Amino acid sequence: MTTNPMRIVHCVRSPIGGIFRHIRDLATAQAEAGHDVGLICDSSTGSTFDNRFLEELRPKLTLGLARFPMQRQLTPKDMSATLAIYRHIRDLNPDILHGHGAKGGAYARLIGSGLRLFGSKVARIYCPHGGSLHYDPNRLEGRVYHTLERLLGRITDGLVFVSDYESAAYESKVGQPKAKSRIVYNGLTPEEFAPVTVNKDAGDFLYIGMLRDLKGPDLFIEALYNIRLKTGTAPRAHIVGEGPQEERYRNMVRKLGLEDAITFHGALPAREAFKLARNVVIPSRAEAMPYIILETVAAQRPLIATRVGGIPEIFGRYASRLIEPGHIGKLTVAMEEALEDPVRMEREASELQRCLAATFSTDLMNDRITTLYQDVQGIAPADEATPQAAESASADSSAQAVYARSGNR
């Protein structure tokens, strides 16, 4: 148990996907360490599958789970939502207000600054998780969001980046951070490194992730269609996940005549989904540090993925195996080669898993973030880091060095 317990409130708009997995693991570790933890999120987001994880987390949140209406885009409704969330957070009297994603980060920093005007010493922490950093800086929308990030950066005490890529994107699109910053990789638990064996009737390919174009399920479907055009038979595939564009993908499958080859399952736990197919395909167009890549590698499942965001940092010296994002031809070829040489795919999955455990750990993730909290509060200066933090910093440096040598910075 910690000797310096803190009152920590996490704020995120959408409690789904990798961003919520990060919060869930972090909040659990913080609660187990003796801190009081709370969570604030949107009241309208999340399926039955997502809400189940929220309810499982609730008993660990001594500062409670509160849900308010939060819009994805900037709207006039943000004013009333900010006021309601401010009143709730004020009553919790937090030491740390940790915002996740663009909207959660905005609420945390604006509300934290309001509290400080009335004497609070709350620390304002922000983790982008990709978010506004995915926007093109040459387009109007990107310029607006990046300008807002620059303004909010002036009222930020600490920044957490989940990958070296995300840190570099912030510097190039927003500017040099004025706050203390730290790169903290997402982590997995030891039990997640147990290999998963597929079902006897397993298909050829699995897509697992949110059903939206940013994640590339349309590319996955089109690649399967291309293989059928070439061979006369479409590989058997499974699509696991939920999202705003699901119906479009179902229509795409019907239009291409792939109903007999592709099965939609909705959301499933990752390790259950891995049993459905021999190869996992993550054809993302953009990412920060995706949990599904970490989970696939830890489960020792053959993986085809794109060179985006922090994925090359996960692959390290094996980053040359990644394919160009958005390139349907190269994705098709990679999937064809996986069908032709399953032994190679299994061997590569084993090689990749062995180099993952030391760097991507929930214990290291929690330690690095907690010591940042202490640092911005003046409790644990950076030059007096704990042995665990020093170990984590060494792991981060080693991974980044491998990434730099692979030519992906």
From TrEMBL:
<protein>
    <submittedName>
        <fullName>Glycosyltransferase involved in cell wall biosynthesis</fullName>
    </submittedName>
</protein>
<dbReference type="Pfam" id="PF13579">
    <property type="entry name" value="Glyco_trans_4_4"/>
</dbReference>
<dbReference type="GO" id="GO:0016757">
    <property type="term" value="F:glycosyltransferase activity"/>
</dbReference>
<feature type="domain" description="Glycosyltransferase subfamily 4-like N-terminal">
    <location>
        <begin position="17"/>
        <end position="187"/>
    </location>
</feature>
<dbReference type="Pfam" id="PF00534">
    <property type="entry name" value="Glycos_transf_1"/>
</dbReference>
<keyword id="KW-0808">Transferase</keyword>
<feature type="region of interest" description="Disordered">
    <location>
        <begin position="383"/>
        <end position="409"/>
    </location>
</feature>
<feature type="compositionally biased region" description="Low complexity">
    <location>
        <begin position="389"/>
        <end position="409"/>
    </location>
</feature>
<dbReference type="InterPro" id="IPR028098">
    <property type="entry name" value="Glyco_trans_4-like_N"/>
</dbReference>
<feature type="domain" description="Glycosyl transferase family 1">
    <location>
        <begin position="191"/>
        <end position="346"/>
    </location>
</feature>
<dbReference type="InterPro" id="IPR001296">
    <property type="entry name" value="Glyco_trans_1"/>
</dbReference>
